[in-house]
Design goal:
about 30% strand; alpha+beta; globular
Length: about 230
């Protein structure tokens, strides 16, 4: 039985902040030159201001970024099946956020690709934007809940999936990093996935799927997301 990898992160952002406009005080036609301190302040504010979902969508990886062996998958409609988490009270407390639901932050963009060269592996990318402290707090909370439960079970209808989790070393990218392996067991078969999250300022990147594909593309995805 093939188990679809579901995201365990669901974040968004609040309203964008407007950068202050400065007017020159000189009476000459010479343009004002921002002081180093003003430039630093403006750069900091840009890294704090949440980006729109439309902007995030333009920063997702595309087929041209990945190569000819990748095909973009159509987004699946949202499902609202009753899902129960057994054996992990910390995850059960998170509710929808633990099963790919959305928190109170709607600014996000997602894409999934199938890698067709000799396999049917998938890799998905998710981008979220919010104030850096909110992204940091919520990401740490979810990954912390997962790491507190090395094994647990997800039950949906008559289907039960056993899940094992293991922390992984995340690449030293961005401001904060999280990474883990997830093994899904159902119907006597296992499926292994990797999930790596990188926060860089007001952006959160999550790359999930085949471990080899996640490792191959996470740096490229971050570079495009933070261009």
């Amino acid at each position: 039985m093939r188990v679809r990898v579901a995201s365990i992160l669901g974040f968004t952002a609040v309203t964008a902040l407007l950068l202050p406009a400065c007017s020159p005080t000189s009476t000459t036609a010479k343009p004002a030159t921002p002081s180093p301190r003003a430039s630093t302040t403006a750069a900091t504010e840009r890294r704090q201001a949440p980006l729109s979902s439309t902007t995030l969508a333009t920063r997702l990886l595309s087929e041209s970024d990945l190569g000819a062996d990748y095909v973009r998958k159509a987004e699946r409609p949202a499902q609202h099946d009753d899902v129960t988490i057994v054996g992990c009270p910390a995850l059960d407390k998170l509710g929808d956020a633990a099963m790919g639901g959305s928190l109170d932050f709607p600014r996000q963009a997602k894409v999934t690709f199938t890698y067709a060269s000799g396999s049917s592996s998938e890799v998905s990318e998710e981008l979220y934007s919010d104030a850096p402290d909110k992204l940091s707090t919520n990401t740490g909370r979810i990954f912390g809940a997962i790491s507190s439960c090395p094994t647990y079970q997800v039950v949906s209808g008559s289907t039960a999936v056993d899940i094992r989790t293991q922390k992984s070393t995340a690449p030293k990218l961005g401001d904060e990093q999280w990474s883990q392996f997830l093994t899904f067991s159902a119907g006597g078969r296992d499926s292994i996935a990797k999930q790596t999250a990188i926060r860089d300022g007001n952006l959160l990147l999550v790359v999930s799927g085949s471990p080899a594909l996640v490792d191959r593309h996470v740096a490229k995805a971050l570079a495009k997301a933070t261009r």
